[in-house]
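User: structure tokens for this one?
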Amino acid sequence: MFFAAEAQKQLPPRTLSPMAPLDSLTIGAERRNAISGLRRPSKTDPKNIVILSSSTRGTKEQDAQYFGQLEKKQVYKVNTAAIVSKNVGETEKNLQMVFANAAAQQSILFFDDAGQLFSKSADPQSTAKYLQSLAQSRNVPTILWCEEDCRTWLKR
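Assistant:
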């Protein structure tokens, strides 16, 4: 837990904010079934990145909260703008700290506007692979909300 406290101190201000769990089931049965289908399949087939797209824009935060309930973990909303930097290597360093913190707390990360990570990158495919490697190596379930264009970079 010491490492998590250290990582939290070094993160840019307002980078992570805990999302409150859903008080009541405001998500319809059809949507609950769709989100349940996005869960990580098994330990032998880790799937640490879940993608929500514009088709779910109206319920993206509820979807993330419901996913957290299914996984029985706290969901942290990541302020992507606080992570992205124009300085070389700074975005990667910030991402490492965010994932280290999430791993230490055994929580889920929700990138509300993941497109910012890719749009500011010279090589969006490389950024996508880096995110996937962090999520898998740290075993941190990660929810990304992004437009259709970033979905192509995240395909395996």
